[in-house]
Amino acid sequence: MRPTLRLGSIAGIPVGVHWSVLLIMLLLGQGLATAVLPAGAPGRSALAYWTVAVAVTVLFLISLLAHELSHAVVARHYGVPVRRITLWLLGGVAELEAEPPHARADLLVAIAGPLASLGAAAVFGAAAGGVYLTGLAPLAWVALGWLALVNAVLAVFNLLPGAPLDGGRVLRAALWWWRGDRAFAARAAARAGLGVSILLIAVGTLQIFWTADLGGLWLILLGWFLFFAGQAEQADARLRGALGGLAVRDAMTPPPVSGYVTQRLLDFAEIAATAPADAYPVLDPDGRPCGLVTLFAMARVPEARRPDTTLRDLRIPLDHLAVLTPDTPLEDAARRVTASRLPAFVLDQGILVGLLTTADLNRTIDLATLKQGRAPS
Ligand SMILES: [Zn+2]
């Protein structure tokens, strides 16, 4: 999830929002201002309802952020780097750059978010109770009560036992601890995630047909999202199961011929034709790798411009590529190659020793699966 807008960083963790968060703010704000608040505390002006609705929506986003920050801070405590936190339509995502090192860490990272939501529910609940007892400001206690309820629902929903929900991670950690096999635990949690997603879609559909309440659409949307996330989770678990214990050197291929930044496209095209590959490294005048040029990009230069085009014009710069070493664990490398969709450079003390492509990864997975003597599950 790429954030549309970066808000800043908290405790050194970049925080951003995706544009779809506006949609949820509008829906929530409108629902609060026109239905929830008028029903709980009737007789106020529209301005009062809208002002409180906006404040409640912002507090809701802050409690979502607290949920994700808790995951992130605990992950970092166990040495897992956190790339960023993004808030979006269906909640928040804390992107971890590696997996927690052991089952206990996996469990604590997973449970931290729902615990934060429960904590927020308790704080808002206590505040709502306090305001209620004073008998003043009924609008405020309805708003605080709503925040308490929503945070409690968030905690419970996230604890449904299917990956990638937090409850799925808890399930994974428990199975990992019990069986001592992380790959098995991850596959089981991903399968449970697909089960949960189908259940949500079914319940949402029933809700629409039986009660004619369109609120069921949210459940269907969530279930649909979880279904695809669960499939990605399953693919990831399979990959990790097959690649565990291997390093980049076990899967990389030697680099094909390289071009130079100053080289003209037409000259390099003749050389490239002799070395079958989809992408070629580009070197700077000192012979250091400085980017990659794809056959696809070369072929798309209009004929009239080809004589004046050099590899400098076509190259994808090095900082857009994953740069690995021969010793990088293949599981981590696979994640980065899949994310960038470009071949990764394998450098050994600054010298290009190989490329790692998705084709290399697929071949390695198939070979590993053959060796294990069972089909991937
Ligand atoms: Zn969470």
- Ranges where pLDDT stays below 50 over 5 or more residues in a row are none
Tell me about the largest β-sheet: 4 strands, mixed
Q: What strand order characterises the main sheet? A: 1-2-3-4
Query: How many separate structural domains?
Result: 3
Shape: elongated
Number of strands: 11
Order of secondary-structure elements: EEHHEEHHHHHEHEEHHEEHEEH
Bound ligands, named by name, code or SMILES: zinc ion
Structural class: alpha/beta
Keywords, please?
metalloprotease, 3 domains, CBS-domain, binds zinc ion, zinc, 14% strand, cell membrane, 377 residues, four-stranded mixed β-sheet, repeat, alpha/beta, 11 strands
Helices and strands in order, then pairings?
Blueprint: E1 5-10, E2 13-17, H1 20-40, H2 46-77, E3 82-88, E4 91-96, H3 103-134, H4 138-158, H5 166-179, H6 182-211, H7 216-243, E5 259-260, H8 265-272, E6 279-283, E7 289-294, H9 295-299, H10 311-314, E8 316-317, E9 323-324, H11 330-340, E10 344-348, E11 351-356, H12 358-372
Parallel strand pairs: 2-3, 5-6, 9-10
Antiparallel strand pairs: 1-2, 3-4, 6-7, 7-8, 10-11
Helix pairs in contact: 1-2, 1-4, 2-3, 2-4, 3-4, 3-5, 5-6, 6-7, 7-11
The structure holds zinc ion (ZN).
Zinc ion (ZN) binds next to helix 2.
